[in-house]
Amino acid sequence: MKFLCLECDEAMDFAERQLPGDGTLAAVFKCPGCSREMAMLTNPMETQLVSSLGVKIGGRDVPAQPMELVRGSLEGGREEAFHEPAPPLSQDVPVPGTTSPAGAGPVVWTPEAVDRLSRVPKFVRGMVKRIYGEWASEHGIAEMTPELMDQARTELGMEGM
Amino acid sequence: MRKIRTYNQVPHGTGSELLEQVLDQQDRLVTRLSSVSTLVAVASGKGGVGKSAVTANLAAALAMRGFRVGAVDADLNGPSLGRMLGVSGMSLSDRPDGVEPPEGVQGVRVMSMELLQDAEDAPLRWREPESGKFTWQSTLETSVLREFLSDVVWGELDFLLIDVPPGTDKIGRLLELLPDLDQALLVTTPSETTRFVVSKSLRLVQEAGVGAVGLVANMTEHECPQCGHRSSLFESGGAERLSAESGVPLWASIPFDPRLGAATDLGNPLVTKEPEAASSRAILALADRVDACARSGARTR
């Protein structure tokens, strides 16, 4: 899919993506010639059509996680479906001052963030933990808090996880 | 009417990176499967011919021969391979580089939707919007199958078997994901109706240029356990006719044995439980044929 600025006869560049959390999506494109912007708005069905390919418009903020699509899409995922290999005792859960078990970098998790994470269904918890860790690393964030988890969830379109 | 440049006349990328992500997915799939020597699809097009039971027993038979074997249940809506290979209720090890599958009978590594669902009687449901499901469901399920293949840490395998659900379209989808499929086993029965349906699948895999194609006739005859008398379950010799018409060899004829279904349903494939049974011997011979084919014309990925 390409958007052509008819005034300039130039292909528009992707500029921004917004996921308001209701299944819809807004993708902003900008003309490199005249700087005119346009937003492509999709309804939940159209958004899902693209998501079903396992891709994200505008590219990924964090690398794709194993089984990301099925874990994020399946209704009624089994709690015991995934288990994390036992890490060293000190890294068993993300606690302040420790490294993320996923190896996503030295992100420190506050006790409140750890508590929030523990309420994520086990079916997706390991994956969500890695996504938050990688998002934090990408943003140069050293300490993960519930507020930042909210921000990451909104930015990454992870509502429901 | 003004002239607007067409898509192909606008070489400039948009930066939306959709194509790049799809190509990246394909790269991941190729990389993951590079540690698998031979990819084998067990398909039919027709339902109820015993594909999953053949897949489970063939996987176990190959493992009994000392090969490293994996099995993917591509039937997302009616998974049964996990049960048949004894991994029901087991967990997948969640690692950053992929999920490690559980090992079932004879050490066969198994991936199945059954491992992910919370209830035995749960139909496959997606959390996504109900409206317009027909527009995206098929795409989503193909993508999930791609994850089953590319996001599982298969390790070094001699054979990875893929149990393909009924429907010629399902074979087509698999071929799009795995254009370098090494072998396709098409399971049929002697019935004329099955021959009619399987012939479509046969043509599909032949046109796709699959490395090797073999027919497997299942439930060919029944041997009375009391007197040993053999009788045909079906009137016509559809499998032989299909083989003769297409030139595709019949790699195995597996006699009907109620113990095969009963044992396999309990996660104990008959080849491991009673390797001397006639149907087990046929499946073990099929394993040897699959191995011989892999040795003679194995593609390298």
Structure description:
The complex is a heterodimer of chains A (161) and B (301). In chain A, the strands form three sheets. A three-stranded antiparallel β-sheet of chain A has the order 3-4-5. With 161 residues, chain A is an alpha+beta fold. Chain A is built from five helices and eight strands, in the order βββββααββααβα. Residues 88-104 of chain A have low confidence and may be disordered. By secondary structure, chain B is of the alpha/beta class. Chain B has helices at residues 18-33, 51-64, 81-84, 133-150, 168-177, 192-207, 238-246, 258-265, 270-273, 278-297, and strands at residues 36-43, 69-73, 92-95, 98-100, 109-111, 157-163, 183-188, 212-223, 230-232, 250-256. In chain B, the strands form two sheets. In chain B, strands 1, 2, 5, 6, 7, 8, 9 and 10 form an eight-stranded mixed β-sheet that branches. In chain B, strands 3-4 form a two-stranded antiparallel sheet. In chain B, strand 7 (183-188), helix 6 and strand 8 form a beta-alpha-beta unit. The longest helix of chain B has 20 residues, at 278-297.
Q: In angstroms, what separates the terminal alpha carbons of chain B? A: 51 Å
Compute the separation of the termini of chain A in Å: 29 Å
Got a strand count of chain B? Answer: 10
- Tally of alpha and pi helices of chain A: 5
Low-confidence runs of at least 5 consecutive residues of chain A: 88-104
Radius of gyration of chain B: 20 Å
Oligomer: heterodimer
Given the C-alpha coordinates, what overall shape of chain A results?
Answer: elongated
Query: Which parts of chain B are unreliable, with pLDDT below 50 for 5 consecutive residues or more?
Result: none
- The gross shape of chain B turns out to be globular
- Describe the strand arrangement of the main beta sheet of chain A, using strand numbers: 3-4-5
Largest sheet of chain A: 3 strands, antiparallel
Helix-strand sequence of chain A: EEEEEHHEEHHEH
Strand content of chain A: 15-25%
